[in-house]
Amino acid sequence: MDSLKKEHEHLLVLLADQDNKLSYYRKRLAQLGEAVTDDEDEGDDGEDDQPPSYTQHSEEQYNNGRAGSV
């Protein structure tokens, strides 16, 4: 149990360090004139949930009962 607590604390330190680095780089990018947002979810609109090989055509074939007959 003691080792789990130490590991948990270590992970929290790493997370805080990562957050500090992210903050530093955001500020640095802003200083260089780059557009920076605080929204980490920006760009995640859910449209890329399918693997790259997935196409509308393959979905239509599947829905028409022709899955695998490409």
From TrEMBL:
<protein>
    <submittedName>
        <fullName>Uso1/p115-like vesicle tethering protein C-terminal domain-containing protein</fullName>
    </submittedName>
</protein>
<feature type="region of interest" description="Disordered">
    <location>
        <begin position="34"/>
        <end position="70"/>
    </location>
</feature>
<feature type="compositionally biased region" description="Polar residues">
    <location>
        <begin position="52"/>
        <end position="70"/>
    </location>
</feature>
<dbReference type="Pfam" id="PF04871">
    <property type="entry name" value="Uso1_p115_C"/>
</dbReference>
<dbReference type="GO" id="GO:0016192">
    <property type="term" value="P:vesicle-mediated transport"/>
</dbReference>
<dbReference type="GO" id="GO:0006886">
    <property type="term" value="P:intracellular protein transport"/>
</dbReference>
<feature type="domain" description="Uso1/p115-like vesicle tethering protein C-terminal">
    <location>
        <begin position="5"/>
        <end position="49"/>
    </location>
</feature>
<dbReference type="InterPro" id="IPR006955">
    <property type="entry name" value="Uso1_p115_C"/>
</dbReference>
<feature type="compositionally biased region" description="Acidic residues">
    <location>
        <begin position="36"/>
        <end position="50"/>
    </location>
</feature>
